[in-house]
Amino acid sequence: MNELIKDDGQTKLSKWGNSSATRIPAKLIEELGWKDNENLAIKIEHNTLVLKPISKRPTDIHELFAGWQDDGKKDTEMDWGRSQGHEVKW
After folding, report:
1. What is the pTM of this model?
2. Which domains are seen in the chain, by residue range?
3. SpoVT-AbrB domain spans which residues (predicted)?
4. Is 25 helix (H, G, I), strand (E, B) or coil?
5. Most C-beta atoms within 10 A of its C-beta, which of 8, 9, 29, 84?
6. Where are the alpha helices (DSSP H) in the chain?
7. Which distant-in-sequence residues (6+ apart) come within 8 Å of 68 by Cβ?
8. For the residues 2-31, what does the mean pLDDT come to?
């Protein structure tokens, strides 16, 4: 990853309103697989600032199955085993 940083591998912390901001080089963002406007968790570990993408959880069934491809196999019912809780009796 270090070979992707063409400058001296440094960035500058600048004032941005009541907070501070810095720029992350595009090559590093690409290497990490991050996207624009991605939500990040931020914390301090061993006196080092750590940024980590927040995994987005689906908010509805449409988001949950957005990438699902139907294989078309629906010839039998699935046996889920014996009831374990308060399942509806059929």
Report:
1. 0.50
2. 22-68 (2.10.260.10)
3. 14-59
4. coil
5. 29
6. 26-32, 61-64
7. none
8. 81
